[in-house]
Amino acid sequence: GAGVSQSPRYKVTKRGQDVALRCDPISGHVSLYWYRQALGQGPEFLTYFNYEAQQDKSGLPNDRFSAERPEGSISTLTIQRTEQRDSAMYRCASSLRGSDPFAEKLFFGSGTQLSVL
Amino acid sequence: GQNIDQPTEMTATEGAIVQINCTYQTSGFNGLFWYQQHAGEAPTFLSYNVLDGLEEKGRFSSFLSRSKGYSYLLLKELQMKDSASYLCAVVDSNYQLIWGAGTKLIIKP
């Protein structure tokens, strides 16, 4: 596609429910990143993939968070048993080559605003 | 620890020039990015510096001094649409991207 696409744009859920956030990167981009961004703050790294391989998941807060990119394109970030503290903007980004992770420009999606009630 | 410092907020006048500073303390250095983020929107790439000096790109320029751990973003001929947050981010020796909290720039007519 023309840009990084994320869905849904907004997600409201009840505490304890599972949610799945989807990211469709720019076609041909090797690397895909998940970030979380609080208002007035920079993005907080969660995890990233090169093709289908998860290269680094050190930023995932706990084992309720997981991500996959099974065919090296679309990725899903899953949060199980959501808690109120999970409420945030979740952003996906992609980059072209993936040869030097993070040392190339990122293209961000519009994000999914998650609200856990 | 690793740290990126930027002013929280700056105000400037339409048509003027503004300089947004960024200082960093990181474990190693593999480049510095500036991103622009309008309210409610995604960050978009502005510039990337890996060598010392000034890189000019239209109305925007970015400067880097690795020895001082310092960068600035210079915006000339300010327009109302330049009102946004400007995020500084540094790639450390482990190729991790360390983000600053951003500088909110307010442009007044």
Provide an overview of this structure:
The complex is a heterodimer of chains A (117) and B (109). Chain A is mainly beta and 117 residues long. Chain A is 0% helix and 47% strand. In chain A, strands 2, 4, 5, 6, 9, 10 and 11 form a seven-stranded mixed beta sheet that branches. In chain A, strand 4 and strand 5 form a beta hairpin. Chain B is mainly β and 109 residues long. Chain B is built from no helices and eleven strands. In chain B, the strands form two sheets. In chain B, strands 2, 4, 5, 9, 10 and 11 form a six-stranded mixed beta sheet that branches. In chain B, strands 1-3-8-7-6 form a five-stranded antiparallel beta sheet, with no helix packed on it. Classes of the chains: A mainly beta (117), B mainly beta (109). At the A-B interface, strand 10 of A face strand 5 and strand 9 of B.
Provide the gyration radius of chain B in Å: 13 Å
How can the largest sheet of chain A be summarized? Answer: 7 strands, mixed
Computed structural class of chain A: mainly beta
Helix content of chain B: under 10%
Mean pLDDT of chain A: 94
Q: How far is the first residue's CA from the last residue's CA of chain B?
A: 40 Å
What is the straight-line distance between the termini of chain A? 33 Å
Helicity of chain A, in percent? under 10%
Unreliable sequence segments of chain B: none
Count the strands of chain A?
A: 11
Keywords:
heterodimer; A: 117 residues; mainly beta; 7-stranded mixed β-sheet; 4-stranded antiparallel β-sheet; 0% helix; globular; B: 109 residues; 5-stranded antiparallel β-sheet; 11 strands
Write the layout of secondary structure elements.
The complex is a heterodimer of chains A (117) and B (109).
Chain A: E1 5-7, E2 10-13, E3 19-24, E4 31-37, E5 44-50, E6 53-56, E7 65-68, E8 75-79, E9 88-95, E10 107-108, E11 112-116
Chain B: E1 3-5, E2 9-13, E3 18-25, E4 32-37, E5 44-49, E6 53-57, E7 60-65, E8 70-75, E9 84-91, E10 97-99, E11 103-108
Parallel strand pairs in B: 2-11
Antiparallel strand pairs in B: 1-3, 3-8, 4-5, 4-9, 6-7, 7-8, 9-10, 9-11
